[in-house]
Amino acid sequence: MDNTEKTFWANIEKPDNTGDCWNWKGNQDSNGYGKLYVKGEFPYQSGMKGAHRYSWELHNDAIPDGMFCCHHCDNPQCVNPHHLFIGTHQDNMTDMVKKGRANKKTPWMLGNANNKNNKKSSKESKAIPKADLMRRLRAERKAAGLISWRADVTQSQAVLLTAYLKRLREVKA
């Protein structure tokens, strides 16, 4: 057992019931996620890692690049590998919305018809042509990420289309 693994186990509050959360008692970030210094094989591989990510890798396998280590239990301090799952950013956001943990002001949710805070029904939302929706959002100086979510296009398409619409306005003026 290396020093990182010893540190990992020393910072866990493990209850008697194995189905409960294993709470991390070491360093935490501002959101309550555990942080652990991991020494890599090479100096550039060393650094801070999420304790839940370390737990997943210790008990399972490496997390593929670009993937998230998510919590079924919604407890950021939990490092119980049975409470964790690997998913994309979208999987993580969908899980958050399903569990009702989404902030009412989270911009990427504003166009989601399943969001109870959305003022438009899904039929009304679909009735707005994408170009009109994008024009309106761009006029309100909304970011490309929000535009792409609301208009159901990729962020690259949103950037290109908003740039095109801007040039079109300049030509007409």
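(ticket continues) Second input and output from the same batch:
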Amino acid sequence: MTDKETMKLALEALELVNLEFVCNGAHHGKKDRHEHDEACPVTIRYRTAIAALEERLKNPKKWVGLTDDEVEHLRNDQPWWAVRDIEAKLKEKNGG
């Protein structure tokens, strides 16, 4: 299953649950306790998760390539076959 498919599946599951149920069914630890007329921290996190999934599905991460200087640096400092160094640099540039 791809990341996109996983995110779609998670979003569909989250959207099936009524937000009132999220609050009423949650175990409210100390940090999540609230008065009846206050916003529920659990529900806020739930909505934030839904929004984050929707945003990522609309705007997937874009590829960040190496600059010419980075390529030159890698080529000068390492043998051309040093794939691991290039992979590490790409991983760093794309969020680890």
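Agent notes: The helical segments are 3-16, 19-25, 41-58, 68-77, 83-93. The mean pLDDT is 85. Closing as not reproducible unless the customer responds.
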